[in-house]
Amino acid sequence: MQNSSHNVLEINDLRTYFFTGEGVVRAVDGVSLTIPRKGTLGLVGESGSGKSVTALSILRLVPRPAGKIVSGAILFKGKDLITASEKEMRRVRGNRISMIFQEPMTSLNPVFTIGEQVAETLRLHRGFSRGEAWEGAVSLLEGVHIPDAARRARQYPHEMSGGMRQRVMIAIALSCGPELVIADEPTTALDVTVQAQILELMGELRHNSGASFLIISHNLGVIADIADEVAVMYGGMIVEAAPVEELFDSPLHPYTHGLLKSIPRLPQAGSRMGGDLPTIGGNVPDPVNYPAGCRFHPRCPQSTTECKKEVPPLVNAGDHTGHLVRCINWEKL
After folding, report:
1. CA–CA gap between residue 138 and residue 148 (Å, rounded)
2. Which pTM does this prediction carry?
């Protein structure tokens, strides 16, 4: 872990549970993460692994009354957001920490123009007048490469394509110069060509804005393009974390191996397409009733009797500086 003075965010042993009629859903169950200043952390894993709940916990937006942060600490530049008042959180949300959601059509208000929605953030957090906020909104839309921004600002969300709407969400997220931007599956609803454009834009803004980024995705290709470090989640826990190149070159956890093998690849020259794409057998575990021991062992081809006894700790992998893994057999893989 890096020195805290160099981190914009530190999450320590976070546990966020949902109390339902069927039992306690341990969606996030002991997660620790750090995001350095001007750094980008990729958070990956299958649907249901706890990625989005981790993001919502940072902003204290976990649906209530069922959802509750039961323990841990979320230190944003040294301030614990879990103990912050609601008034303090309103000053943080959208201002110092902003979020880009995965489906912009449900995040944008259909009865207000694009320009009005971008300008609202500037009026609310930065005290701009209506005229100043409108000019600022048009400038922000230009900054995310929306052509003819002054005209587009007067359009409604349904008049724009999915890629353009996602650009608007990015403009809103960056409008107040946040210190941390959380992007939750920012390219999921977009076709491959538009995905590439949005990733290129985010990479450009990441270098120009000076903000730190938390990119949440199940798409490892997205993470490889934009992240500095990667954390892999499974069953509400971090099972592996490493610098992005090291994780792709030398994965240590069986789950990470499975994710990387399941990425579709073009055939090499002279070879023919065909055959089944490798998959990870089984299903994501029920968060109400996790299996005993390692939570991945029912799906792991390398599991042993020892794997069923207790949850393995997240340990530094020998000589792999900064490479953490939660597996008792990682040296044998």
Report:
1. 9
2. 0.88
